[in-house]
Specification:
Jelly Rolls; 8 strands; four-stranded antiparallel beta sheet; 192 residues; 9 helices; alpha+beta
């Protein structure tokens, strides 16, 4: 794959750990561009994750079902990396899915080939360690937000992180992400 097609991805990498040209070329060789239509699953429930994704354009969400209810775990926008990490590292099928909420252009990085590059390019291993560490910290913050903040506080924080989310994501998914009903979300939105 041409490195110019991965410009956004390599820009994100520089925030964590700049890579030498040879390392960028190695990642480009194991990457591909994927286009996915709105409302399609990029990875369905029960799939074993073998790909790390980067969103060039569009929005994705991770979701699962609990007692028959569709629950949104997280949203991912342009310039975000997304993977079912628990599946990726254990090799077991995930109980969660990745759904695309807008027509999307995504970079797919073959994880097995990426992990093989770690021995040849310690910079790549360091980069992805930093990326996965940041994702872990974000997950902890999300859990703490649910534990220690009201739905209204979580809603305000979400709007700060993603100001245009209400224009791009169905309200039922926003409510589910916040752990509230759509009726409660409407009430919170009316408090402005």
């Amino acid at each position: 794959m041409d490195k110019t097609e991965l410009a956004q991805l390599f820009q994100l990498f520089k925030k964590y750990n700049a890579l030498p040209v040879k390392a960028e070329e190695a990642i480009a060789a194991i990457s591909s561009i994927i286009t996915v239509k709105k409302n399609k699953d990029l990875q369905p429930i029960g799939h074993t994750c073998k790909t790390i994704y980067f969103i060039n354009k569009g929005i994705a969400r991770i979701y699962y079902f609990k007692d028959g209810i569709d629950i949104t775990e997280n949203f991912f926008f342009e310039n975000n990396i997304i993977a079912r990490v628990e599946s990726l590292f254990t090799g077991k099928p995930s109980r969660k899915a990745i759904q695309i909420l807008e027509d999307a252009e995504i970079v797919g990085i073959n994880a097995n080939q990426l992990f093989k590059l770690y021995d040849s390019f310690p910079e790549i291993e360091r980069l992805f360690r930093k990326i996965f560490e940041a994702a872990y910290v974000e997950t902890v913050h999300r859990i703490e937000g649910i534990q220690f903040h009201t739905a209204e506080e979580r809603y305000k924080a979400l709007l700060q992180e993603a100001p245009d989310i209400l224009k791009r994501v169905p309200l039922k998914y926003v409510a589910s992400y916040l752990g509230i009903t759509q009726v409660s979300l409407s009430r919170i939105r009316g408090l402005k």
